[in-house]
């Protein structure tokens, strides 16, 4: 895909902005036998790749039933041990301290209450567990989006996590603009997977493309829950 070039993770059926390098960064946080939670997993590709590479057990959580159905088929095709369930960042159907690693790829910006989202991310982590996530910081509030924040680190720390890394994505702005155009070209398929009307998704994608001037960075965050 043009936005990522050789960094595009082919074969994972992903609509996210994640690159091969970032997938390796996610996998570096996971050990064999770990329980990996992918919140906002969508069609499942990134989480399945990380779990398969690391030898982890995957639990994917998303609000979109069609995307979860696709993720289950992809897990069977890739031969990765995985379970998928409906849930949100603010209310994941997971017990306390069940995850060795929580990952989330480009989905957290859709969370209406980011403080509650981080609280839940920390809650499901075991002591010593790690959170790895990609998302965007905003200098202003984009139209028709949930509330955004200028820096996610204070929210992570407020939830009791220790931020280890906060790395800005290379060439993120150009990639974001190209990626939005790519999704607009494939809006029918993406809308079917998300279980929403194509017109609604197209409007949301145009808003995303038009709001890039409010974005200050796309980041990879790695944080740890103290033991």
Automatic annotation (TrEMBL):
Q: Name one GO biological process term.
A: methylation
- Answer whether the UniProt record assigns the keyword Repressor to this protein: no
**What InterPro entries does the record point to?**
Erg6_SMT_methyltransf (IPR050447), Methyltransf_11 (IPR013216), SAM-dependent_MTases_sf (IPR029063)
- One GO molecular-function entry: S-adenosylmethionine-dependent methyltransferase activity
| Record keywords, A-Z | Methyltransferase, Transferase
Residue span(s) of domain Methyltransferase type:
38-132
Report the SUPFAM superfamilies cross-referenced here.
Answer: S-adenosyl-L-methionine-dependent methyltransferases (SSF53335)
Record flagged with keyword Methyltransferase = yes
The record's listing under Pfam families reads: Methyltransf_11
- The name this protein carries in UniProt is Methyltransferase domain-containing protein
- The source organism is Nocardioides agri
